[in-house]
Every structure is written in structure tokens, then in C-alpha cells.
Design a protein that fits this description.
Blueprint (H helix, E strand, L loop, with lengths): L1 H16 L7 H7 L3 H9 L3 H8 L3 H7 L2 H16 L1 H11 L1 H21 L6 H19 L9 H16 L5 H8 L2 H10 L2 H28 L1 H19 L3 E10 L2 E12 L7 H27 L4
Antiparallel strand pairs: 1-2
Length: 306
């Protein structure tokens, strides 16, 4: 029961994290030590699971899909979306810089705990860290592409978006903005345009199945390099979480709904040390770091693996 509570709380954190730009559920799963188990559980929703379901072997299906773990995570995410996510949405609207400062401290210290899981820092592991950091920073600095509604490109958007949601440090919605189809997807959802939603859903399904299998295989054979690459993704994502920045907005049109402004890029700046807000942000960074420390202690007390 203690372990179920620990997994549930991590699901809460994963659900809330999706509201924060630059933070994804994958980031929280990685820094709380459940990422590999989550990927393996998703990967287990395969043909074998379908056969067990058809054969009504519910006990076998429960074990095969690690359903108790997925259920605790899923319940946490759902509760978070209903409760905590709304709170963070309000905090982002009213106190964005303070909210980002808290998460900056949380993510910054979490890098230490993730890096601790790497058993040997070989040249390939260090190279993976650098590659992951460069990719994450590069995505944050990219200018948005033009909208493209072709079947194959929308399908590709689905593959990339769902893959980025699984990967720590990468935001699926931000990736859609970079690929130029964020407004297209929003409009398709509001108008239930199946011409867009069908290839998008197909891309998400293919991306989820393929990417979960790929990451599980890479984790099994190259654990240190994979952890290092993902640590790099999270490290690079700090440029998006940096509290002292100005968002460059882009207005997107939506069918049947008012236009919506979304973040296209950022202008970063150095804080003023004489400002009281700067020191409040610094204290919130420390609070974020303390929260991840307490989360690690709770995970240790509940017994790892979770």
C-alpha cells in the first residue's frame, strides 16, 4: 500500500507537470525513478495483452501489463488534472516567474539524482549527455515552421508529439508549435475535423507503440547512455524553465473559437540582484530543490524499485 501511494503521488506530479512549459510527465517519471518501469508497462500493451483479454485471462493480463502500477499512475494523473493542474494553470497566469523559479530549482537538483543512477561515466555517456542537451536547447531556439495539413506531415506530427511527451524535458505542445501545426490541431479538435484528427491519432498510436519499444530496448542494452541522454534533455530544457525571460507570442486561429495566443519562442535576460522579486525567486528555487530531496527520501523509505 505504501508503494501504491508513492506511485500515486508521482502520478499527481506527472499530471501537474504537463501544465508547465518545458516540463513533461516524462521528466517527472525520470527524476522520480519510475521512467523505465512506465515505458515497459506501456510497451506491454501489445498483441499478447490483446490475446489475454480475448481469452479472458484477466489475471495474466493484470500481471503482463503491470496494471496495478499503471492504475496508480493513471489515477494520480487524473486526480492531478482535476485538481493540481488547475492550480498550476492559475499560478502560471498570475505568478509565472515565481512558478517557473520553483520548478527550475526542482529540475536542477533532480539532475543530480538522475546522474547518480549512471554507473560509469565513459566517453560515450558524456557524449550522450552533450547530445541530449544540444537537442533540447536547439528545439527551444527553433523558429516555428509553416502550417502543413498534408496527411503524411500530420501523421509525422502525431509521431513526434507523442514521442516528445514520453521523452523527459520535451513538451509535446511546444514541438507542435515548432512544427507549425499547433493551430491546425487545436482547430481540428474544436471542429472535430477527422481529416486532421485521423492521421494525428494514427501517428500518436504508431509513435507510442514504436517509441516505447525502442526506449525499452535501448534502456536494456545501453542503460548508462540512455540515462545520460535523457539527463541532457532535462538539462537543456532548463532554458525554457529559466524564470527570467519574456515570451514571444504567436496568435493562432481556431475554427469556431476565438484566436488563441501561444508561446513561439523566448527572449532571455539576467535578473537584477537589487530586485526583491529576484530574491523571492531564489528562495522558491531552494524550495523546489528541497521538494525533490523530500520526494527522493520518500521513495527511498517506500523501498525501490517502486
Amino acid at each position: 500500500m505504501h508503494q501504491d501511494l508513492s506511485v500515486f503521488l508521482k502520478g499527481l506530479a506527472m499530471g501537474a507537470a504537463n501544465v508547465i512549459p518545458g516540463v513533461s510527465g516524462g521528466t517527472i517519471a525520470l527524476i522520480t525513478g519510475i521512467y523505465e518501469r512506465l515505458i515497459n508497462a506501456i510497451k506491454a500493451c501489445d498483441l499478447t495483452a490483446l490475446k489475454l483479454l480475448i481469452a479472458r485471462d484477466f489475471s495474466g493480463l493484470w500481471k503482463h501489463t503491470d496494471a496495478r502500477f499503471l492504475g496508480a499512475i493513471g489515477l494520480g494523473v487524473i486526480v492531478s488534472i482535476v485538481t493540481l493542474a488547475k492550480l498550476f494553470e492559475y499560478l502560471l497566469r498570475s505568478h509565472e516567474r515565481f512558478t517557473m523559479a520553483f520548478f527550475f530549482g526542482l529540475i536542477l537538483l533532480s539532475l543530480y539524482y538522475v546522474a547518480k543512477r549512471i554507473s560509469h561515466w565513459s566517453p560515450t555517456v558524456i557524449a550522450s549527455l552533450l547530445v541530449g542537451s544540444v537537442i533540447a536547447v536547439g528545439i527551444a531556439l527553433l523558429a516555428p515552421a509553416s502550417e502543413n495539413s498534408s496527411f503524411f506531415y500530420v501523421f509525422l506530427c502525431g509521431v513526434v508529439a507523442i514521442s516528445s511527451m514520453i521523452l523527459p524535458g520535451l513538451s509535446g505542445s511546444f514541438v507542435l508549435i515548432i512544427m507549425g501545426n499547433y493551430a491546425l490541431v487545436l482547430g481540428a479538435i474544436s471542429s472535430v475535423s477527422m481529416d486532421i484528427l485521423m492521421p494525428l491519432a494514427l501517428g500518436c498510436a504508431v509513435g507510442l507503440i514504436f517509441f516505447s519499444h525502442l526506449i525499452a530496448w535501448i534502456f536494456k542494452h545501453y542503460e548508462d547512455q540512455t540515462l545520460s541522454l535523457m539527463t541532457g534533455f532535462v538539462l537543456g530544457s532548463l532554458v525554457v524553465i529559466w524564470p527570467w525571460k519574456t515570451a514571444v507570442m504567436q496568435t493562432v486561429q481556431r475554427n469556431g473559437k476565438p484566436p488563441k495566443e501561444v508561446v513561439a519562442s523566448y527572449d532571455w535576460f539576467v535578473p537584477e540582484l537589487a530586485s526583491a522579486n529576484t530574491w523571492i525567486c531564489a528562495l522558491l528555487m531552494i524550495a523546489g530543490a528541497i521538494s525533490i530531496y523530500l520526494m527522493e527520501r520518500f521513495a527511498a523509505d517506500s523501498g525501490k524499485p517502486v
